[in-house]
Amino acid sequence: MEPDDQHDEGPGAVAGLSLPARVAVAAGVAVVTIATAVHLSMVFLHVAPSNTVSKQHADAIGDYIYPEFEQNWKFFAPNPLQQNIAVQARAELRGPDGRSTLTPWTDLSAQDGAAIRHNLLPSHTQQNEIRRAWDFYASTHDAREQPSGLRGSLSEEYIRRIAVLRLGAGHDAHAIQRVQVRSVTSVVAPPPWSDEKGGTKPVHRVLRWWPVTTADLPEGGNR
Q: Are 199 and 102 in contact (CB under 8 A)?
C-alpha cells in the first residue's frame, strides 16, 4: 500500500482536523473527564464514612445518587435481601344514592413493576414512588402504627395521597371517602442448592382506614 493511501490514526488524526473540529474534540474530552470526576466523587462521598464534606453537602449528594446510583450492599453476600414487599390499597366509595361500597385491593407495587418491565427508560415515579413512600412510613411508625413526630404524619399524608391518586384513576376520586393501605411481605424462595428453608405464608401489615380530605384529591380538587 502506498503511503498516500494510508489513513492517519491516533493523535495524528486529531492534528489533521480543522481548528473548530479540534476545539470540539477537546471540549468533548473535557466534559467527559469532568463528568467522570464528579460522578466518582459523589459516589465516594456517598459510600465513605460520614465526614465534614459529606455532611455539609448531604442534600446535593443524595439528589445526585438517588435513585439511579443508589449503593445497596445487601445485594451481595452474605445477607442479600430476601423479601418482596408489595404495597396494596383499597377505597370506600360513596355512591350517588349515598351507599358505601368497598373496592378490591389494588396492588400498587405490581402496577409499578408492570410499568418498569421491558421499559428501557422507566420514570423516577415508576421506580421509586411506592417503594420510597412505604419506606418513609415504616421508618417513622412504631409497631402500633403510631407516628413518630411530624415526619410520621407527613409520611401518612404522602402515602394516602398516592393511594387516592392511583385508585382515583379507576374510580371517581371525588367519591372516595376513605382509603386503607397494607403491605404484603413474602420471603424469596432460596435457590435449589441452598440449605435454607423456604418461606412461610405472606405476612400482612394492615393500616387503619384514613379519611380522605379535599387536600388529598388530585390537584386539591373540590368534592
A: no
Q: How far apart are CA 112 and CA 128, in angstroms?
A: 9
CB 106 within 8 A of CB 167: yes
Strand partners, 87: 183
With b meaning 16 or more CB within 10 Å and e meaning fewer, what string describes 140-154?
A: bbeeeeeeeeeebee
What sign does the CA torsion over 53, 54, 58, 62 have? positive
> Quick check: 217 and 211 in contact, CB under 8 A?
no
Mean pLDDT within 83-109: 94
Q: Could you tell me the pTM of the whole model? A: 0.64
